[in-house]
Design goal:
This protein has helices at 10-15, 26-36, 40-44, 113-120; strands spanning 48-57, 60-69, 73-80, 83-90, 93-98, 102-107, 136-145, 148-156, 162-168, 174-183, 187-203, 206-216, 219-230. It is mainly beta. β2 (60-69) and β3 form a beta hairpin.
């Protein structure tokens, strides 16, 4: 269940008051967003994040663990229909395990799933120095999501991938983000996914959403965070793909039987 985005402190209300439409531009909206999420300098000091909680999909609710580290290292461990699943990225690129698509852990080397997982693994806030990732940010203007007034941005990534960000018109926190995704359980064609963000809480000065719901096609995924840790000690080995098993050595060819007694010539 989703609830309207909540504003948690009077100070946040005062610092993120709605701007008159004629005074807004993309840079100002991005600055207000970064301030609402805890400030650019605090986010630049973040090197790792760990979230744990409940992942809901296919009418099941199971624990999840999501870890992120600078360098776009990423790993989400969750459960799909009673079987373990992983979406991850290490220093060599994306890899995963999915009982419905790729039952054994392996590299994800082909699009659209490779680029989709690369986007998912972006570390930190995308709107923190977006030009460093080649992301172009444009102001669309005023909008609305389920009765909530929003300020909308268009983000264009390298390769022309686009996302529409709907920020709350007063708090400037995310209300929803629209993106194009592929989901093998429904269709081979791309579909719109709308991600809703709610229950923002302060964790060591950062504002983090503790409820994220993804709606795409006929499916709903929900992630409810129960604990968040900022800058935990995470070793790169936690993100590494399992080693590829060595192929089994071929069985030696059977030796020919020695000649039976009495079969010798002469």
């Amino acid at each position: 269940m989703r609830f309207p985005a909540t504003i948690f402190a009077t100070a946040l209300l005062l610092s993120a008051a709605a701007l008159p439409a004629e005074e807004r531009d993309a840079a100002e909206v991005v600055a207000r967003y970064l301030e609402a999420r805890g400030g650019a300098e605090r986010w630049r000091a973040v090197s790792a994040l760990e979230l744990t909680g409940i992942y809901a999909a296919f009418s099941f609710q199971e624990p999840f663990r999501l870890i992120r580290k600078s360098g776009d290292r990423y790993r989400l461990d969750y459960v799909v229909l009673g079987s373990p699943a992983v979406r991850a990225r290490d220093g060599e690129g994306p890899w995963g395990q999915d009982p419905l698509l790729q039952p054994e852990a392996a590299r994800i080397a082909e699009d659209p799933y490779k680029s989709q997982l690369e986007r998912e693994s972006f570390f930190g806030l995308v709107l923190l120095d977006p030009e460093s990732r080649g992301v172009v940010v444009e102001l669309i203007g005023e909008g609305e999501v389920e009765g909530q007034a929003t300020v909308d941005l268009r983000l264009t990534f390298p390769g022309e991938r686009q996302e529409i960000w709907h920020l709350h018109a007063e708090s400037f926190l995310e209300v929803a983000v629209d993106a194009q995704v592929f989901d093998h359980t429904q269709s081979a064609e791309p579909m719109r996914r709308r991600s809703f963000y709610d229950d923002f809480r302060e964790v060591e000065g950062l504002m983090l959403p503790f409820q994220v719901d993804h709606e795409f096609g006929a499916r709903l995924e929900a992630m409810t965070v129960e604990q968040a840790r900022v800058n935990p000690q995470l070793d790169d080995s936690e993100f590494a793909a399992p080693p590829v098993p060595e192929p089994a050595a071929p069985e030696p060819a059977p030796e020919e039987d020695a000649a039976a007694p009495g079969d010798e010539a002469g």
